Amino acid sequence: MKLLATFTFLIAIFAFCYGTALAQESDPVIVPVVYNAVVAIDAGCGCQQFTFSGDNLGDITTTRLSLGGYHLSPKSISNSTIVATAPRRNYITGSYLLQIVVNGGRHQTDFEITIGQQGPKGEPGPIGIQGIQGVKGDTGLKGDTGLTGAKF
């Protein structure tokens, strides 16, 4: 069991993820999404350890990570969790660009994360464009026969 020092900072994730899908047309677009991130000191190496939680985060063989332009070393990666260390750099309080590249470099998403204090909430972004019409659903089951009405 790895010991983590008591220094734990909650990292705020700004999901202005302008995901870049670098996919071939036959390749489904799989955009990584991060919902939460925590940084702590890994007592084993004295370096910062990052834990990212989300969806479509890839796997240990095909996912690459960088934070503020520096490579993060993955310790474990699943579709919903990444644990990585920053072996030669300690990040101070501030905002950094987190890049997650999955599926052998075909899909990339960028997130801005803040370590330490978070600034005031920003203004809401513009309303997105309306999505395309969905496919027509199947016809429902026939309902029960209703009650007989009153006779006059």
Outline of the structure:
0% of the residues lie in helices and 44% in strands.
One letter per element, helices H and strands E, the order comes to EEEEEEEEEE
Number of helices: 0
Distance from first to last alpha carbon: 82 Å
Q: How much is the average pLDDT?
A: 76
Helix content: under 10%
General form:
elongated
Describe the structure.
The protein has 152 residues and is mostly beta strands. The chain has no helices and ten strands. It has strands spanning 4-14, 20-21, 33-42, 47-55, 64-67, 70-71, 73-77, 81-86, 94-102, 107-115. A hairpin with a 2-residue loop joins strand 5 and strand 6 (70-71). The radius of gyration is 23 Å and the shape is elongated.
What's the topology here?
Blueprint: E1 4-14, E2 20-21, E3 33-42, E4 47-55, E5 64-67, E6 70-71, E7 73-77, E8 81-86, E9 94-102, E10 107-115
Antiparallel strand pairs: 1-3, 1-10, 2-10, 3-4, 4-8, 5-6, 5-9, 7-8, 9-10
List keywords for this structure.
single chain, mainly beta, 10-stranded antiparallel sheet, 0% helix
